[in-house]
Amino acid sequence: MPADVPFFASINVELFGSPFKVLKGWTAIAKFLGTNPASAQDWVKQGMPVKREGRFTIADPAEVQAWLGRQSNMPKPAHILTNATDIAAALKESISVVKRKK
User: Fold this and answer.
1) In whole angstroms, how far apart are CA 79 and each of 11, 34, 47, 69, 72?
2) What is the pTM of this model?
């Protein structure tokens, strides 16, 4: 997992109703990840999937979540928490996943 991946990016919870279909541009990609464009660009050097579309860099949120999950050694894609996410429910789900593994 990249050293600067935010903690919340590695929590294994469902993100319902994501408003993101395609992330277009470094600012949108960084906002989705909860980081800055420079960090997002560094993550690409570590293997985060992005594509070029004309003069823009684009990313599929599902592919980014899958990559984060693989980087975090999670059994399924990582889901990014947003301001609309119920953090308590996310933490409960993460704890239950860990308990099931024991």
Assistant:
1) 7, 12, 18, 8, 11
2) 0.64
